[in-house]
Amino acid sequence: MNSTLTPQAVLDRAESLRPKLSSGFRDEIVKSLYAEVERITRRSVKIGPKKKWDFDQKIDRLVTSPVLGLLIMLLILMAVFWVTIVGANVPSGLIADFLFFIEEKAADLFTNIGFPWWVTGFLWHGVFRGLAWVIAVMLPPMAIFFPIFTILEDLGYLPRVAFNLDWLFKRVGAHGKQSLTMAMGFGCNAAGVISARVIDSPRERLIAILTNNFVPCNGRFPTIIMLATVFVAAAFPPLVASFVAAGTVLGVVLVGVFFTLLVSWGLSNTILKGEASAFTLELPPYRRPNIGQILYTSLIDRTIFVLWRAVQVAAPAGAIIWILGNIFVGDLSLAQHVADFLDPLGILIGLDGVILLAYIIAIPANEIVVPTMMMVYMGVGMMTDIPDLGSLRALLVDGHGWTLLTAVNMMLFSLLHNPCATTVLTIYKETKSYKWTILGFVIPLALSFLVTFLVAAIVRLLGGG
Amino acid sequence: MVKRISSPCADCPSNVDLEQMGVKLGKFDRVVALAGNPNTGKSTIFNRLTGLKQHTGNWPGKTVTRAEGGYEFNGVKYKLVDLPGTYSLLSVSQDEEVARNFILFGQPDCTVVVTDATALNRNLNLALQVMEITDKVVIAVNMMDEAHRKGITLDTRSLSRDMGVPVIPVTARTGEGMQTLLVTIADVINGKIRTKPLRVEGSVEMKHAVSELSTQIEKLYPNTPNARWLAIRLLDGDERVEKAILSGEIAKLVRSQKRADIRFSKKMAVEGHQ
Fold it and tell me: In which band, very low, low, confident or very high, does the pLDDT at B177 lie, cut at 50, 70 and 90?
């Protein structure tokens, strides 16, 4: 026996032993594993006449059939959006009315007690108003969307979606499981980026990570829903308005899917060259969702968690906006100066300076884009004039020159623009690379400017906008 | 301080000795790992034992990182580690490597392989592979209710005899069989149940080669817990394992895994979720 045993010696020994074994050592192991299992289960497993199994398969044949399957998928998505929009409308209004009522009364109380105007303003018209907006706009849609989505997940529908979309991803050189990571992205893009771990190939995993942002996460959904409801659907009679709104949201999501595929295709033909790898995806049996568990995970874990995150950002953001709005240089507040500075760029892409300012302040969390925008528009000085959600349209259209183009481009910008800070940080944690992290930020940002610019240019050429 | 978390079943007879400890990770007496194919209900079992609400979903691959929680049973404190689902331990994708590294280097006191009663012949493969790495294995056959609905009957006693480790039928959704599972895990750890895992040995040449190599590996790295399995991987030409042996990473991995465990436990205790 060798007295000085080195690692290399062990490897060499393995090398020399290998030829003595029958060729295809690994096959032998795998084969004998299978044979063993086969032998054992034959003895202990008895399968009776199949009943339920056939029913599952019948549903699957429908749900995963090439054309009908896609149609069913779109219908389900549409239904989810519709229920979310219709269900969230009234509670959102009620919550907004209630919180703004509190703001008004509390501010009055503070003034009467004799607090200086800036304490009242900062606390109630700054911090509190930011919070109120976030809660009113976000809580109801989330509390409806998350449970429905979790039911679909527990039922076992998600892998069927992946199955249906597989051919699309294959064609652009990406992995079929990318649709699963996209589904997770609906909740939160950071979660979507983490879930890309289910993809084995590093190349395809990177593609999934870099494109996850094109799925509108829960922080951006309320923005899109609000714009779809207030601008697009408002032009239709009330009876169909909610369907138009849901259809618009669905359209935005499909645009997101389109850009996901486009960018995936671009990446896999340039810096991430390669063929799509084959994979097997197990279609789990349909299972009865556990309602208690669903309500817990979707309401407590997700809704409250996401809301809390938004609140943490909204409070300081509200404070910042209030300060920006109340420090005057010359005739204009600081906020107005910044907005004016950004205005030319904003108008070039069919938006305006205030919207861009809102997106800059909202980099930590997309949830606060609408609140920030509203607060700058309303001007913090005129605190008595707080519109309810219904008069939002009037404020934007009459007061600030919004058109349908502004609304459409804001939806597009919201869909495509750079991921929030949390997601960027997660991309770094997952890729451990500055290069991919920067790309994950720059690609969407460049795309959002390009697309909104083109849309604005075309509309203006045609005489609209 | 362990507080009993009230759940609809907190007072059922089956839960009398179980204290769900959630993420209040203090000092632990034992470490139990949950392994299994994707979508076999590992996270559901995890939630049931720890009282935590780890997200579950009916699709393979929902859990991509491992989660930890604790429970106390008959006065012994257990740390339960929920591993990502894997079809085999032979591949190198990231989520599968988490599972493989933990079973290999984390040296859990017991590994529970969770299987789907309706797809046993696919699931038992992984069980056999885990049993190559460690003796302390319990097989939990989950989703017995579903199997029943599909007209599948299982003779778990015969299964247990053939596999050489305890096989416990459970239905994690309802909690059926969990008590037996807990008792069995405890008994396997304290030696009341002696396992004799079925090892697929292959040809005579292979048997000799494996035993010679594993002796050498043990000499080289005295603390390596799974020399036999490493030997098989070497003979298979597993580059990952070759590299680990050449660079001395094997010894390092054993140490670093233990450190990572401590760090991870702390993180979990603070954040309470993934």
Answer: very high
